[in-house]
Amino acid sequence: MLTMNNISKVYQTDMVQTHALRDFNLHVEEGEFIAVTGPSGSGKTTFLNIAGMLEPFSEGQYLLDGIDVGGLNDNQRADLRNQKIGFIFQGFNLIPDLNLYENIEVPLRYRGIKAAERKRRIEQCLEQVGLASRAKHLPQQLSGGQQQRVAIARALAGEPRFLLADEPTGNLDSLMARQVMELLEQINRDGATIVMVTHDPELARRAPRNIQVVDGQLADFTLYQGTQNLKAAGV
Amino acid sequence: MLEIKPIFHALCRSKVGAILLLIQIAITTAIVSNAAFIIQDRISYLSQETGYPEQDIFIFNVMMFGQDTSPSQQYELDEAMLRQIPGVVDAAYSSTTPLSGSGSSSDFSLKPAPQESKSARSSYMFIDEHGINTYGVNLIAGRNYSEDEVIVTENYDELSKVIVVSKSLSDELFPDGNGLGQSIYFGDIPLKIIGIVDVMKGPWLKDSRPDNVALIPFIKAGSNARFVVRTEPGQRQSVMNRVEEAMLKNYNKRVISRIRGLDEDKEQYMAEDTLMMRMLIVLITILVLVTALGIFGLTLFNISKRTKQIGTRRALGARKSAIISYFLVENAMICSVGLVIGMIAAMYLGQLLMQHFSIAQLDVRYVIATASAVFIMSLLAVLAPAKRAANISPSIATRTI
Amino acid sequence: MFLHYLDLSWRSFKRTPLVSFLMVLAIAIGIGVTMTSLSVYHMMSADPIPQKSSQLYSVQLQIMDEGSTWWTKDNLPMQLTYQDAVNLNKAEAGGKRVTMVRTGFSVYLDSDTVKPFIGQARLTTPDFFDMFNLSFLYGGVWSQQQEATAAPVVVISKKLNDKLFAGENSVGKIIYLDDASYEVVGVMDDWNITTKYYDLNNGAFNKTEQLYLPFSLLKARELENWGNTNGWKHEKTNTFNDKLNSELVWLQFWVELKTPAEKQAYEDFLMAYMQEQQKRGRFNREKLEAKLRDVNEWMEYNNVVSEDNEILVGLSFMFLAVCLANILGLLLAKFLRRAPEVGVRRALGASKRQIFFQHIVEVAMLGFLGGIFGVILAQVGLLGVRQSYSYYQSLATMDLTMLLSAPVIAISTCVIAGLYPAWLVCKTNPAIYLKSQ
């Protein structure tokens, strides 16, 4: 699903070069659920941005679903994001001026899906996250956990094969965090590949495969779960 | 992939900014269409054909205080002298000056006063047989006066018997076009039309009949006189420089004043309209700039307010062009409403101006043209900020601020 | 507290220099455009003689036969015939009276020091100077005796005295006008009026005359009228005497009436006069009509303020409205972004009122700055007007009233624009902004 070979990312400021990622190598199989942990400033977010094609990388090779991302232009990357990746952000990033329905509709519109099909998918996704009755509400009328569920519904509506979650429970209390986590596990069971960045070891432990980023490199590799999952991970 | 509905919903949730923009666009449209209409009206007024080679003609006044010469003889001598100056085409006595805003007018009738008959108001000038040539106007029918038809007098013992009129005056009195050879009456004085000149404007361009001009061959020689001189093209300034000296050399107990080109007289007369035109042009230019800046500023502000959501949209797969078109569509929607209100306001303002001032009915085409221009201007004003918005990195979405 | 608010405003100004600059620029442009047209309007419509403008009346008589029409809105001729002007002046009715007409001469001295030139002149009865509040540098007005005998005397302007006599006391000296000599009896002080209200016939904003002579000289020397002469019927006027006895209108007549009672009495007198004239075969009409208009009414009647200028003033104020909407938008943007800070202030105990006034002060400061720059822009605009149209030389200027009203208009405009954003920001619930972010 995702292969990174010797990816490097250098941030250039006036005086200093900062290596956010250095010779980063990772392979993710279809259907995996990976938790990425690491201390602040280790490069987690940079990894996520590059994985989601939100940011270009300086060196190396990145294959997403067999496509070499390095050679794509801005529009192609945008389309690829739209079709293959679902994003779940720490800050939910719902558009405050749009109601839930319209929020979920955003990526579908960019894909050019017809209105009837959009309606079907949105209703289905809202059902899935348990917010079908709130379609006309504005984001600020919901609690944090509900907002994150809407964000997940938005990520799911495009039926992506690859979900990128950035601290999906970071702004939520533990009860809500658990609900969101359960929802993600459900989605993984349904076949989507999930890469989740988190600083919460508790949460990470629930994922079948954990990786740790330290100083811009894949430093550790620990398995917490049983062998079936190992096999599924292809290790 | 126009997102009209969600954009509309989003707009409805932040009304004030949109309404302000709408008001600006509406007022701008109202002002600009009316101002443009007035400007166009002034331009066509200012650049109208007068019938004279204005650049080659100059005029000056003479005021004699010496008593030791007969004015009528002196003027004959002066004219002859003027015609001898190198570069001069012709020179003539002229009681008043065209295009200057100052002159004489009277009714000319088909029957002698006090009988009631058809009449037409016209400006008139007393000139001599050199007048028509000096003014450089085009005699299209009949003939000029002969020398002995020009009455030179110091009282009113003898009066003119013939007259040359402009085509416009002739046609007003004789709609069948057979004015030549007919007699018309200046009060009870009969004057036979011996010649008709083409376009020749009178002293008052703002008059309802600026084209009615009567040229009467009569010189009432007194202490005041006015001469008109036509020069070869390009020679006027040099002749103007010498004329005072030459006139005083001919006879020095007099004052030569106001030596000015015919075009200067016209400019003076039109100065207020020129000023109005310029002020309106400045006004609408600045107005359009201010409105464009307003749209520009408001879009920039909207973008900075929505940085995160733009990044999110990009992360969710929006192409750059989708971001640009979002802002363009949003602007176009506000603008369209503003323009509709503005066009109605423009027509209403035009109506008000027509009621209270001497301004013609606003031509709808100006309103439409202005609205189109304002629309394009607003899209251009949005384009730069929208491009900037499209360059917002999608990685903003993962940043927690 | 005000100073504290002012300090906060200045800091806020510096914090967002671009937006602040844009706002000041928008106000300045709006004020600049508005003040340019408003200044011209103000000068055009200004009362030229405020002390007694309501006591001086221009007199109009309806001399035309039944059925004849004039171009004025009430069908009355603007000027008087010679007969009426002289008769009204002679009659023992009303206060000070002035009959006058414009003329001109070639002016020169005995010596060759000054080249002959054309001088604008006014033939007037002697009350002129008192009536229009004119003062003398040297000498004074000619006597009634001199008026009665058409004495060759002249009052000259300060400017002409400077030109001819280098500003010295020239009373008793001789100047030549056309072919005759005249004795200077008085030198007037400067007469600073922008509107030549006493004779609006040949351009309302032309300069006042340089020479003033007894009205009786008109008949005695058969002097020419340099103003307007209008006829309404066919008359033979070949000789000067014909003209004096004709129904041509070409003279101005003013009367000073201090009270409404005096005015009423004078109106009655005019009626009686016209009835008496009817017996001599004049005023051939059913309904006799006379009109007294005071200075301001007279200027209004003569459309002294040009139509163009009224349109410009109207459009300028609409322009200002656009600038106002512009500023309002920017203020909203600026203030709402500050809502979190306001939340903190509110939490620290600032009242809504205090927050509101803090923002109003800030807006007023922007208005003040905009007003100052606006005045500068207006000066540029007025310079442009003067360059474009020299006739407006004395009109296209800002007097003290206008200079002071520019910042006042700017500040009040801005405060009006700022009310809504300030209210919006002061009613924000502090809790919202303290919780998030």
From TrEMBL, chain A:
Which residue intervals define the domain ABC transporter in the entry?
2-235
Which GO molecular function, any one, fits this protein according to its record?
Answer: transmembrane transporter activity
Q: What Pfam families does the database record attribute to this sequence?
A: ABC_tran
List the InterPro entries hit by this protein, alphabetically: AAA+_ATPase, ABC_transporter-like_ATP-bd, ABC_transporter-like_CS, ABC_transpr_LolD-like, MacB-like_ATP-bd, P-loop_NTPase
Sorted alphabetically, which keywords does the UniProt record give? ATP-binding, Nucleotide-binding, Transport
Question: CDD domains under this entry?
Answer: ABC_MJ0796_LolCDE_FtsE
Per the record's keyword annotation, is Zinc included, yes or no? no
Q: Look up keyword Nucleotide-binding and say if it applies.
A: yes
Please provide, in alphabetical order, the Gene Ontology terms of the cellular component aspect for this entry.
plasma membrane; transmembrane transporter complex
Give the similarity note. Answer: Belongs to the ABC transporter superfamily. Macrolide exporter (TC 3.A.1.122) family.
Q: What is this protein called?
A: ABC transport system ATP-binding protein
Q: Which organism is it from?
A: Pseudoalteromonas lipolytica
From TrEMBL, chain B:
This entry's Gene Ontology molecular function terms read: transmembrane transporter activity
* Keywords, sorted A to Z: Cell membrane, Membrane, Transmembrane, Transmembrane helix
| GO CC terms in record | plasma membrane
Q: How does it sit in the membrane?
A: Multi-pass membrane protein
List residues traversing the bilayer: 275-301, 322-346, 366-386
Q: Where in the cell is it found?
A: Cell membrane
Q: What is this protein called?
A: ABC transport system permease protein
Automatic annotation (TrEMBL), chain C:
The residue ranges of the MacB-like periplasmic core domain are 20-265
Q: Which residues form the ABC3 transporter permease C-terminal domain?
A: 315-430
Report the transmembrane regions from the record: 21-44, 311-336, 356-382, 402-426
Localization (cell): Cell membrane
Q: How does it sit in the membrane?
A: Multi-pass membrane protein
Q: Which InterPro entries does its entry note?
A: ABC3_permease_C, MacB_PCD, Macrolide_Exporter_MacB
Keywords per UniProt: Cell membrane, Membrane, Transmembrane, Transmembrane helix
Sorted alphabetically, which Pfam families does this protein's record hold?
FtsX, MacB_PCD
Name of the featured protein: ABC transport system permease protein
- Source organism per entry reads Pseudoalteromonas lipolytica
